[in-house]
Design brief:
This protein is of the alpha+beta class. It has seven helices and eight strands; from the N terminus they run βαββαβββαβααβαα.
């Protein structure tokens, strides 16, 4: 079976774009089988990107007032992230109830952050599965009641009615929300930089020692001692710089995590 191909698209609001008061965007994207929606904010600029199956990309082209352009895969490095998922991981919930939706000021809160930050929402259409589960559960309850020759309780009837109403009026999605805040550098980058500097210093030291073979032995030993001492000092300085950078990076990650917690708290206040 050929793997499904995904594409990255940037959503660019046009000058004529107006507030989506009628939630047309949500009505359109609920026809998508799967997509991930990203909001990147950095230095007062905002970028909207989606990742969707290739056969769904046409849906996003129908959103009024928004132009679509192919986008490169975003860079998610140098970022601390936190995932928000359903407490019951087996639950399926509607993407949104258009009749009771409340406008969010999420974007303005992200925009206000001084550090680069990101919000992403991953959604996968599981309507067929949840409809099957609802039907199976309703049939089981009714069959058990019939076998015992008793009527369903009012509570059970209410639950079945509510489930059937959801079954008829919504598309159901698995949903995961991710928030992220940029950090100055990652620990892996510092480790890689340290290793590169040590390798370069080792090669430099080895080449210097190799060149000494053409010199007189006494002179070579003196020169070799000087080079060796210089090499040790250089390696020591690399290690000291590494520890300093590591300490700074850990402090920066801690600060970014605190900012991330604040962003999440503000968005759901």
């Amino acid at each position: 079976m050929t793997p499904e191909k995904f594409v990255w698209l940037e959503l660019k609001p046009q000058q004529k774009f107006k507030d989506d008061g009628q939630n047309k965007m949500l009505e359109i994207i609920q026809h998508a089988s799967e997509f991930a929606y990203f909001v990147f904010c950095n230095n007062g600029a905002m970028k909207l990107v989606v990742r969707t199956p290739e056969n769904n990309q046409g849906l996003f082209k129908t959103i009024p007032g928004i132009s679509i352009e192919p986008a490169k895969t975003p860079n998610f490095e140098r970022m601390v992230t936190k995932y928000l998922t359903l407490k019951n991981r087996h639950s399926m919930v509607p993407l949104v109830d258009l009749t009771t939706i409340t406008k969010s000021n999420l974007y303005s809160k992200l925009w206000a952050e001084k550090r680069g930050c990101m919000m992403a929402c991953f959604m996968y259409d599981n309507t067929k599965k949840i409809l099957s589960e609802i039907s199976k559960k309703s049939s089981t309850l009714e069959r058990q009641a019939a076998a015992k020759n008793v009527a369903l309780s009012s509570k059970k009837k209410t639950e079945i009615a509510a489930a059937n109403q959801k079954r008829e009026s919504h598309s159901h999605y698995n949903c995961t929300i991710i928030f992220g805040v940029q950090v100055a550098s990652e620990l892996s980058e510092i480790q890689t930089r340290k290793q590169r500097m040590r390798d370069e210093e080792r090669r430099y030291f080895q080449s210097k020692v190799k060149n000494l073979k053409s010199l007189h032995s006494v002179e070579s030993r003196k020169e070799c001692a000087i080079i060796s001492e210089s090499h040790k000092n250089t390696v020591k300085n690399i290690e000291n710089d590494f520890r300093t950078d590591l300490k700074t990076a850990k402090a920066d990650i801690k600060e970014s995590t605190t900012i991330l917690d604040t962003v999440i708290a503000k968005c759901f206040a």
